[in-house]
Each structure stands twice: as structure tokens, then as C-alpha cells.
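2024-03-11 09:14:02 INFO receiving multi-entity request
2024-03-11 09:14:02 INFO entity count = three
2024-03-11 09:14:03 INFO echoing inputs for audit
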Amino acid sequence: MRARNIWPHVWLVLGVLIFSFPIYITLIGSTHDASTIGRGDVPLLPGPHALENYAQAWGSGGGRYMGTPAVQMLANSLAMALLIAAGKIVISLLSAFAVVFFRFPGRMICFWAIFITLMLPVEVRIIPTFEVMVNLSLVNTMAGLVIPLIASATATLLFRQFFMTIPPEFVEAAKIDGAGPMRFFKDVVLPLSITNIAALFVILFIYGWNQYLWPLLIINDRGLETIIVGLTKMIGGGDSQNEWNVIMATAVMALLPPVGVVLLMQRWFIKGLVETEK
Amino acid sequence: MATLNLRGIKKRFGDTQVLHGIDLDVADGEMIVIVGASGCGKSTLLRIVSGLESATEGQILIGGRDVTALEPAERDIAMVFQNYALYPHMSVFQNMAYGLKIRGLPKAEIESRVAEAAKLLDIGHLLDRKPRQLSGGQRQRVAMGRAIVREPHLFLFDEPLSNLDAKLRVTMRAEIRRLQRRLAVTSLFVTHDQVEAMTLGDRLVVMHQGRAAQVASPMEVWSKPADTYVAGFIGSPSMNFLPATMEQDGVVLLDSGERLTLVTPIPGSTGRAVTLGIRPEHLSPAEAGLALRVELLEPLGSETVVHGRMPDGTALTAKLPGMVPEGTDLLLRPDSAWLHVFDRETGRRISA
Amino acid sequence: MSQSAIFKGVVVPYLLLAPQLLVTAVFFFWPAAQAIWQSLLREDAFGLNSDFVWFENFVEVLTDPTWLDAALRTALFSVSVATLALGSALFLAVQADRNIRGATTYKTLLIWPYAVAPAVAAVLWLFMFHPNIGVFGRALNALGITWDYRLNGAQAMTLVIFASAWKQVSYNFIFFLAGLQAIPKSVLEAAAIDGASPRYRFWTVVFPLLSPTAFFLLVVNLTYAFFETFGVIHSLTQGGPGKSTETLIYRAYSDGVMNLNLGTSAAQSVILMLLVIALTFVQFRFVERRVHY
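2024-03-11 09:21:47 INFO inference complete, emitting structure
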């Protein structure tokens, strides 16, 4: 009986090790100098160059391959992720509130219009969307990076689902108390939605941070480069002579914020993940 | 503080007529209980008075002021909901103060009103708690408190006791009655529970299929039900209904063959097909009377409810004092002072 | 909801919806309509004139052997990613479910790869499997296996599949574990009393009860492999060597952005749109049924 109970642990520890190894080797890579890695002698233990690698990545970027310092790309990514998450939440809260607590002509059409966006990911409308961006002079702007991504069917559906569980008596009590719709939104709906907002925020922050195709299309100004796209541009053709030490340090910085958010806000993260898929 | 007048209130939802024209005059400080089975329109009527629903036709006056077109907040009313509708994220104090805050009352005034109401309801020590930290009875009090602080002209209660357990319901019932008397606020109270209705109301409105079947004091509703529906709805166990014909103005001939004499004859009723109503408690064992083959005994301690059939198969229920031995057939005589005669066709009461 | 539980007004709700509808119209519906329109046009070589050519672009795309190859490759790639990611996640979830006490710890240790961007995942795997500098790349070469994903298409595909699946396992793990923990213990105890062995119990009781979750995850994983792995491919192999890792999305991107072939790129977009619509439809049909479990 005891012998059998040990196996799940063995498998799980093995699983954790396999899943962590890519990160581990990246961390190791970020602590050696370029020539050690370039020679192909990738050690399995940390080296002494961590500080200078991170300092270079943070302050000046990957030398001759990519001149944008990570601090700037991190700032861009952070701004993009925060704006996308906040924008999606605000826009969806308002839409869901309108759809659930009002009856107006065209209500269902509006709802379906939002719903259908689920079926139109950026990937399938690359060129025409880019053309719209050009026409609106949004290429190479933070607004262009963020605004097209803040429509959210998923978040609207989630909030709608949640709002429909708010007892109708709350609306009635508010009416008798003399609260108008926006007052009700601010005093009752918003406070009740806090946990949902937090859970959604975690998911959307990661979504925003990890955007790839969209910034790749819209941004070619190095000053607006996001860390994810910047990182892959540093690699180029995958040359052995790359400054891999700096690239790995940048990779660590690129994945730390979203991973940190997941680990620190694990409860919200799992709630958000499960709720958005309902 | 205010009277309430309803004039010809009608309500239609699409093709369904829910209210067929309700008229009601409520005196200042009166407690009116609207009672009826589910789907009779009682809640809709209350909601129309509150302004949460609008009437298809008719007029509502509160304190003589026509409020038909006004929003709920402008009607000077307060409502206690069935599930209390306490905001879960607000403390008891905030819940009670919310309506006053929206009205822009000064902070000191709000605090003193809430404190006063809390004292009245004995919930002063709960003001900082959240609703989920309260028991059912305490939530009920907070819901009342929220209504009281508003100092409204009219209280509306939408089955506020139905979420409480049986024992608490009896306590809260008495408390609501005491409170309403003390504050002397005109009140409408909706319930499906006839005991609640009888004990709470100055007058009852018995609703049936969108109409007010009877508007009268509880005793009158019980002693002189306006029709067979009211007669059957109020009283437990329900009144017995026996098909009969008026042999003379003062003599009823039951279809089963027995003759009963009325204390007060009904002039000009000879030959009319009627339904005779007898409450189970108005039957007593006698030497001669209605023969009952006993099918089931329900001993309640001080009395026994007897279910059985008359020789022609008509079901009859009697409530007799003390114990009734098993396996005996009974002869029962109705109390002639308590015979109710209804028209067979319309079900309307025709006896005095 | 009855009349009394909603607010009056028409202007307010439209104002509330305006931002979302505006973004939706400008950045979703207009481009989508453009894609459909462009897919029916063909521009001349100088981009000066365009003719309405009906479905010629579609015919061209659908009869292009290289596109059909890409379609087949995409199917192979997606199924491999889904199988790998679902299989290992289910295995790990079953192990974690066996000892509830440790489950939370393992969950924490296994969920974080979800937060790693596909493109970053590609960088991590590249660093491990680079033929000259990667730990595993060098080890493979030292063992006599000629490993260079930059030259060998099959190796490139394998690497892309593993990097893509690696990131998705944590997502599947969370849902499988939740699904397993939702199975009432009494059902398992009843099966044990019936004398079923643990393995038999798993396949006859646990797995059928888990199948709604599994099916839902299958759809999600296929969608992920189709669209979101663009980052992996773009940063790891750029579709190469040759076209050996070119999926449909990658091709639509390179045809449109690099080769500026608007008509056929638009036709490809429309075909992909139909695919997403089909997947979304399946997912929602299914979710509706899932509610009853």
C-alpha cells in the first residue's frame, strides 16, 4: 500500500522537473558570458556574470542586434497589458450592464454583434485590419496597439452571466431608494463584481502581455517595441554568435511579470480561467 | 399619515389579464393584508402600488395625491422584500442609510434616524455587520429598519416572513404588528398564509384570479365569506360544501336527503339551487343528523379532525372536541346559526 | 426578468454600449467585410486596377498544392500538439488527484507555464535544442544523431510541436484536475466495492465522467494550436526550413504581409474565418450541453 502511494509523487516530481527545465536552463544561460555559451559549453550550474548580463539587457539591450533596452520594452509591455486589461474590463462591464439591466430596441442585435467578435480573431483578418490602422494613422502608436484589442466578447459574456445572478430585488430596492441606473452601477453592481473583475484582470493582463502578432504588425518603431516581440527580434536567425547571455536575461524579464502574476494571484487566476470558459 | 386609494386597477401582460379592476380605500394608519393563492395577482398589485410595475388602467392615490405616473422613489413609500434584498457588500448601517444618502440627507440626520430605527428593532449592536453575518430573523429586522428610516407614507410588505422558519415567523409576525401599530404607518402586506392574514390585518383583501373576492375585517371574512372561494380559502380545515336546494325560504334540502332549517330565512329563494357551506368546527355529535362513515381520524390533542363520507358519497370533514374513538360511525348536527348558503351557479353568498 | 427589475431609458444603454460597438465595428466587422470583399477581387501586378473575379481566388488557394500541404501540415501539427498536451496533462492530473494533500502544491508548480508567451516558449526551447549551443541539441549530435532543426524539416516540426504543447499542458492540467476533483468520491467507492481494479475504475468510471472536460479541452487545444502558436513558429523557424513548419495562419501572414498578395491572402482569411466559426459553434453547442452535467 505504501509502495503504491509513492508513485504519483514520483511522476509529479518528474513532471515538475520537465516543465521547469526550460526555465532553469534559461536562468543558467543568463548567468554566463556570451563566449561560454557561444562555444557550446552550456553549463548546468549558474555562472558569475548574472549581474552584468541583466544590467546590459536592462540598460542597453542586445548589443549590435537590437538596440532597445529591456527597461523600455518592459515599460511598453506593461503599459500595453494594463491598458488592454483595464480597457477590456471597463468596456465589457458597461456593455454587459446595458444588456442586462435595460430593455431597448436592438438589444439582442448588439449582444450578438459583440458575441460574433469571438469568431474573428486578429489572425484571420490581418491585412484588412492593418489597412484600417493605416487609414486611422494608428500604426506605431500605443493607441493602435491597445484599442483594437479592447473589444471583448469573453469578458462581456462573463459579466452578463454574473449580472444575471444579481437578484432582481436589488434593482427594485434601488428604485425605491431613488437610485438611478448609474448610481446602482457604482454602488451595487461594481462592488459585487470585484472578485470577477480581479479574476478577469489576471487573465487579461497575461493575454495583453503575451500579444505577439498584433505588435509585430503594428509597431516597427523601436521606441514602442514590446518585450516579447523585441526578444524574438534579438534572436534573428538563431546564430550561435548571438549574445545569448543577454537574450536569456531578457527572456527571464519577459516571462517574469506574467508568471509572477499567476503565482501571486493564483486563486484569482484559476477562477478567471475557469469562469471565462463557461 | 396617509390614505391609499386604488381606482379600477387593471393589469395585462400581453394577452393575460392579471388584474381585472381592483378598487380599495385604505384609511390612514390601517394595516391591509392582501391574501390569496399564488398567481392570484396579489404581488402584482403590490408592485403597482410601489411603482415597480405600471398599471394598464386605473389610478393610485397616496395621501390624496395621484402617484400613478410617478417613479417608485417619488411615491414616498418603503418596501420590505421577500428575500430582504439587503446589499451583501454593505454593512447593516450602510444598507439602512443608503436610501437616505441618495436623498441627500445630512449625515447627522441619517445617523440619528438609523440609530433610532435600530433601537426600535433592537439591532443597534449589529450595525457594523454584513448581511451574511446575520441570522434570518436579524436580516428581517434590518430589512424592516431600512423601510422605517425612510419615514414613508406607506409601507409595503411582499411576503416578508416566508423565508423564516415556522417559530420565528410567529414571533416576527407579532413584532411587525406591534411596530405597525406603534408607528401608525398605513401598510399593505401581501401573503399567501391565511393565519398571517388573519392575525396581522385590520382588514383583508382576499384575491382570486385577479379580482378582490372580498374586502373585510378578518372576523367578517371568516364569519360571512362573500363566496365559496373565500369560504374555502379561509379557515382550516376548509369549509364543507354540500349541494342542496332551497325547499322553502328557510329550509334547505340537501341532495343527500337531509333537511336543515336556517336561523334567518332568505326571502324569495324557494326552489333555488344552492351550495350549503358548513365549517368543520360547526358540526357536533348528536342523536340525529348527518350520518358520517369515518375514513380517517387526525387527533390534534385538544380536538380531532374527522374525515369521512355521507351515505351518498359526499365527503365531509368535522372538527370535534377531545378524542374520537376509532371505527365508529357518527351522526353530526350542524350549528344552524353558522350555515352559509351560496348560489350554486355563481358561488356568491346569498344568506345574510 | 420582469419589467420592475430593469431601468427605463434607451439613450443610456446605447451610450454604455457605444465604446464596445465602435471598436467592434471599426476593427472587427469592417476588416472582416473588407477581407470578404478583397477575396473576390484580383489586383493587377502594379496594384492599380482590381477586377471582380468571383471565387477565383478561392479556387486558386484550394487547388494550390503548397496550400493543401500547409493545410495537411496544420492538421498534423494541431493534432500532435493537442494529443501531447492533453495526454500529459491528464496523466499528471490523475497523479495529483490521487493525493489531495499535495495537489495544491503540484498545481502551483505546474500552472505557471500558462503565463509564458508562445513566442517566449519558443525562445526557451530554442536555447535547449540549438544544435551548437543547446544542451540537448549538442547532446543529440554527440550521440551521433545529426540534429539541426534549421536544416531538417521533421526535426523543426518536432521542436515546434513540443514547444507549443509544453505551454498548453498547464491549462489542461488545471481543467482536468478540477474535473477529477468534481467526481463524487462515493462513485469511486461504489466502483471499488464492486471489485473494479484502479485501472479498470479509471477507464470505466473516471474517464467517462471526465469526457465532457476532455472534449471541451480538445476544442480549446485545437484552437490554440491553430492560431496562438503563430508566435512559436514565427520566432523559432519562420515556417522553415523550406515550408516544413508553415501552418495556415503562418501562410496567411506571409502571403499578406511579406508577399503582399492581397486577393489570395484575403481568400485564405475567409477560409480561416469559416474554420473559427465552425470551432466556436462546436464549442458553444457543447458548452450548452455541458451545463447539464
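2024-03-11 09:21:48 INFO post-check: The radius of gyration of chain A is 23 Å.
2024-03-11 09:21:48 INFO post-check: Chain A has a mean pLDDT of 83.
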